[in-house]
Amino acid sequence: MSEDAMHGMKVTIRIQRFTPAPEREHARRHSSSPFGGKARGSSPFGSSPSRRRIRGKHFTQDYNIEAHPGQTVLDILLDIKRNIDPTLEFRYSCGHGICGSDAVSINGTPTLLCTAKIEDYARPETNQTDGAKAMANKGFRPTGTTKNVADDSISETNAETISANDTASRIDSTTSNFGNTNDPNDQSNSPTSQNTPSNPTVIEIAPLPGFPVLRDLIVDIDQMMNQIKKLEPYLKADGKLARTKDGKIDMFEYLQKPEELKRYELLSNCISCGVCEGSCPVYAGGEAFIGPAALIASSRFINDSRDNATDERLDAIATADGITACQSVRACSRECPRGIDVGEEMWQLTERVKNHQS
Ligand code: SF4
Ligand code: FES
Predict the structure, then answer these.
(1) Atom of ligand 1 nearest to the CA of 271
(2) Could you give the residue ranges of the DSSP H alpha helices within 209-256?
(3) What CATH number should be reported for the domain holding residue 132?
(4) Which one of 157, 311, 325, 354 is most buried, counting C-beta atoms within 10 A?
C-alpha cells in the first residue's frame, strides 16, 4: 500500500495474544525448595522454562488506529500500550534493527517490529474467518504435538487452559474491542463489520513461529540461545606474541588479511533475532534441528582464518540435529534483517561437512 493511500487511514491491528494462567501455589513452593524440583532429564535444554507446559488463554484482539506514513509497527504497538491498552506485552530494546529482541510474525512473515513499516504490511481486510485461517495456516507452526488446528480452533470461543507449546495456531474468534468501545455487545465493532470502506485495512501480528509463547508477543528464546552457546561461538586461536623493542611481551596479535575478514564479516552481523528460525519449516524449537541461527554463529568462526578449531566445529554440526537436518528450503534467507543469505550459508556448511568427512 502506498504512503499516499495510507495517510490518515484507519488500520486494524489484529494481535494474537496469550495470557498465562496464574502459577499455582504449590508450583511456587516447589520451585523455591531445594528438594522440590524434579530433575528434568539430561537434555542441555531441559531446565528451560520452554520445557514447561504453559497454560493460559489464547485470543485475538483488534485495535483500530490511525496510521501515518513512515510509522513502524513498533511505533503503533507503543502507542497502543501507552494510550489504549497497557496490558499488551511485547519485547523490544534498540528500536533500530540492532538488538534483535522484537522478532514477531506480521501477516505470517517473521520480521522485526521496529523495521516493519505500516504501509508495507497494511492490506485489505477480507473477513474474519479468512483472516484467521490465514493466520493459522501461514505463520503459526505448532512447536509441540502436531494437531489439526486450522479448523477446530477457529470455532472455539474461549481457548482457555491450552498449552503454549502446542497451540500457537489456536485462535479465539471472540475479538474484544479495546480502544473502540466498552460494550462487548456492540456489533458495529465486530471484525466483520469493520470491513468497511472507512476501515479497510488490517495488519495481523502474532508471536514468532517455532518458539514457545510466554505472554502475548513475547516468546521464550532460551532454547535458541542455548543452541547457539552449545556451538561455542567464540574465537579459539593461538595468537602470536608481539614484543616491544626491548623484548618484552606486548600483546597477542591475531593478524588477518582484508580478504580473510570478508569471508565472515557479514556473518558477524547476526543479531540472533530468530527470524530465520521462525521462517524455517524444519526448526521446531527443540533438539530436532539446532536451527539456522546457531549454525550461522558456528559458520562465522568456521570461516574465520584465525580460528584453530575448524575440524572440531565441523564435527559438532555434522549431527542428525545439526546441518544434516537442514532440508535446503531456504526460507531462512528471505527476511534476515542483516542481509545474510542464511540458506546459502547452510548450503556452504553442508558442503564443508561433506568434504570434511570424505
Ligand atoms: S541469521 Fe539473520 S535472521 Fe537469523 S538470527 Fe541472525 S540476523 Fe536473525
Ligand atoms: S528493537 Fe532492537 S532490533 Fe528491533
Answers:
(1) 7
(2) 222-230
(3) 3.10.20.30
(4) 325
